[in-house]
Amino acid sequence: MISQDQKVAVITGASQGIGAALVEAYRKIGYVVVATSRGIDPSVDEEILTVRGDISDPVTAERVIASGIERFGRIDTLINNAGVFIAKPFTEYTRDDYASVTGVNLSGFFRITQLAIEQMLVQGAGHVVNVTTSLVDNADSNVTSVLASLTKGGLQSATKALAIEYATRGIRTNAVSPGLIKTPMHSEKAHAALAGLHPVGRMGEVDDIVDAVMYLENAPFVTGEILHVDGGMSAGH
Q1: Which domain CATH number covers 195?
Q2: Of 147, 155, 131, which is closest to residue 209 (Cα–Cα)?
Q3: What are 33-53's pLDDT values in tens digits?
Q4: Which of 26, 133, 182, 191 could form a disulfide with 9 if both were Cys (CB 3.0 to 4.6 A apart)?
Q5: 209 HSE (CA, 13 A, CB side)
Q6: What is the pLDDT of residues 65-81, one digit of tens each?
Q7: Within a domain: 1
Q8: What is the count of structural domains for the chain?
């Protein structure tokens, strides 16, 4: 059991890219972390609990939150970072594509957030951050992305609804809306083309998203915010 003053962050999609960087960032500010993904390995850090599983399965969400409470006694922050992106023309999406994207992006958010907020209500405080995409606000003919807009757009709306529902009960909900970030999701061969989709002329770095999440974590008067970190994509072209 940790000290009563030490806070606990739960991070999904935590094995690589933005998720792995968020684990490090929360440890640096003194949090213990429950990190989950399909292929995450055990950590040598005793204050990082890893839980392997598919977040689209409600059983995984239940194991993550129950394990975190059993090990650390509380849940203070949930970062819904796990996401699947499949870019195809709308009529070419398959049933498997639909199941994969909605499973992680929507079902993966739903159950774990329910369970985390239940615990936060017991504690009287908490923070949820959803990672969405700037394509929700700025559809681009160069990136066919209806499933991303459908699912991440849902998360964006849910962010505001949760912020209002729990505004008087100590629980904040915010979102970070990235542009295209240099992560393992995008091959280096595509970087030049992807950079051109941003008005600033470059892709974002993982640290840009981490810095945005850290701002929200330390902004107690901010809730219901959709923080665009997208090189100007949401402003226009």
Answers
A1: 3.40.50.720
A2: 131
A3: 999 999 999 999 999 999 999
A4: 26
A5: 30
A6: 999 999 999 999 999 99
A7: no
A8: 1
Does 171 reside within a domain? yes
* Total-model pTM: 0.94
Domain presence at residue 236: no
Q: Which residues contact 233 (CB under 8 A, 6 or more apart)?
A: 134, 135, 138, 140, 179, 197, 198, 199
* Overall size of the chain counted in residues: 237
Contacts of 236 (CB under 8 A, 6+ apart): 138, 199
From 38, 116, 29, 18, select the one nearest 76 (Cα to Cα): 116
Judged against a pLDDT cut of 60, whether residue 19 lies above it is answered with yes
Whole domain around residue 218: which residue ranges?
8-229
CA distance 227 to 209: 10
Structure token pair of residue 210 = 């981490």
What residue has token string 């992680």? 104
